[in-house]
Amino acid sequence: MTVDTEQIYYKLFINGKWQETEIDSYIDVINPATNKSIGKVTQGKAKEAALAADAAVEAFKTWSKTPARERANLLWKLYDKVFENKEELAKVITKESGKPIKQARMEVLNGAEYIRWNAEEARRIYGTIMEAADPKKRLQLKKEAVGPVAAITPWNFPFSMVTRKLSPALAAGCTVVLKPAEDTPISAIKFFELAEQVGFPKGVMNLVIGEPEPIGDTWLSDKRIRKITFTGSTAIGKMLYQKAAEQVKRVSMELGGHAPIIVFDDCNLDQAVQQIARSKFNNSGQTCISPNRIYVHESIIDQFTKKFELFVKRLKVGNGLKDETDIGPVINRAGLDKVESHVKDALDKGATFDVGGKKYEKDSCENGFFYSPTVLKNVNESMKIANEETFGPVAPIFSFSSDEEVIYKANNTDYGLAAYIFTTNLSRSHVVSEALNYGMVGVNDTVLAQVEGAFGGVKESGVGSEGGPETLADFLDTKFISTII
Ligand code: ADP
């Protein structure tokens, strides 16, 4: 790895101040398109995590009592700031995650929409009054902020994952300690710079970047932190869930997925091809709702595959900062190794390809972690790619012959995040979407991260959801008050 001479040095944000750690240790943030460092971040440990928790606990006393209208006003201002700085934010996202700039711009707008939605919902925290059996009693349910919240976010959406977690927490009256992924901390840092300009009271939002385990353990073992909201792998999510159970903390978990897409013989083929390709190769296949298993009815599989391959061949691979780029690198060496190993395993077991199937060489694509968009054919359930998240630009196409068979196969996984179907048959769209054991189902639609909808999974893909009309519920406790008058 080479290091740029002009290094930018970033700090942590604790109790309203940008802070360095005492020890001289830092994280190098690498641009995956070039394998060069784009900045250094001072590395927080348990001590900084504890200081952040102290600040969040202290600030909770006043923030939770701050009128919802004031909390909403600050979130509105933050939304405006994000909007004003959208191009700079998009560039940061592209540089540290590698994703194409047009997708990074979408991420900023999508992330901003979560801030706006939650600002709107902050004004609509309602309680309930019930009629008691005893006429001398008055019964009410009141909603209260759960307490200081720990948020841990992944690298694939380094900006919108932060806004999706922090804005509902802040809207509900919770204070926050955040640990973003160590691969992509600068988007979170830029977001905190904007929040500072807006004037959130000190301690309400705290940012600690560094070694995951000591930071996570500090927050999970702190009784005063009442909730953890996490997006990441199922393996880490389970571990955090277990640790949270020690103190019966509230949890929201958005974990891994292995999304099936079912393409029925009555679908609009061109629509299906475009939607599936866009979704599959979005962020180089590194999204938790990425179509991992494309099941196509045997009567149209050749037709579908030809059109799909044609579409994929036209995708431009390159540095995400170029406007024309459709596919950037994957996040790092380990990510690239995983993609290669899944493809190799599939080929060893009989899969074939006519499009993609290779790493990009240094000369043709800078020095980063590129993999060409790949379409795998003749795949079957014995392959790793049929069962594990590949998190790369590889689309395996499976054949099926009946609705029952494909529903069984689609559900035959421990994951339950997103599933998709393509059909023009109204009755089939209802029957199949009801039969799929998933938190989200797209019918002729692969765009599920919509703020008005509820993003979340079932089974081992998680608990809770983000966005939608219940967006604040995960950050509110219900208190029952019974009064004898
Ligand atoms: P991915 O496979 O997408 O990198 P991870 O689950 O490994 O997903 O990471 C998601 C987030 O969880 C990142 O911010 C990462 O630093 C954090 N994380 C990983 N291990 C731990 C841990 N032991 N304790 C707390 N956070 C962790």
What does this structure look like?
With 485 residues, the chain is α/β, with parallel strands linked by helices. It has two domains: 2-255 and 462-484, Aldehyde Dehydrogenase, Chain A, domain 1 (3-Layer(aba) Sandwich); 259-451, Aldehyde Dehydrogenase, Chain A, domain 2 (3-Layer(aba) Sandwich), CATH 3.40.309. 36% of the residues lie in helices and 21% in strands. The chain is built from 13 helices and 22 strands. It has helices at residues 46-63, 68-84, 86-97, 101-122, 160-172, 186-198, 212-220, 234-245, 269-281, 301-313, 333-348, 403-411, 426-435, and strands at residues 2-3, 9-10, 12-14, 17-19, 26-31, 36-42, 128-130, 137-145, 149-152, 176-179, 205-207, 227-231, 250-254, 259-263, 291-297, 352-355, 374-377, 394-400, 418-422, 440-443, 462-463, 476-484. The strands form five sheets. A seven-stranded mixed sheet has the order 16-17-18-15-14-19-20, sandwiched between helices. A hairpin with a 6-residue loop joins strand 7 and strand 8. Helix 2 (68-84) runs antiparallel to helix 4 (101-122) and helix 2 (68-84) crosses helix 6. The radius of gyration is 23 Å and the shape is globular. Residues 1-5 have low confidence and may be disordered. Bound molecules: adenosine-5'-diphosphate. Adenosine-5'-diphosphate binds at residues 152-154, 179, 181-182, 212-213, 216, 232-233, 236. Keywords: Oxidoreductase. One of its GO terms (molecular function) is succinate-semialdehyde dehydrogenase (NAD+) activity. This is Succinate semialdehyde dehydrogenase.
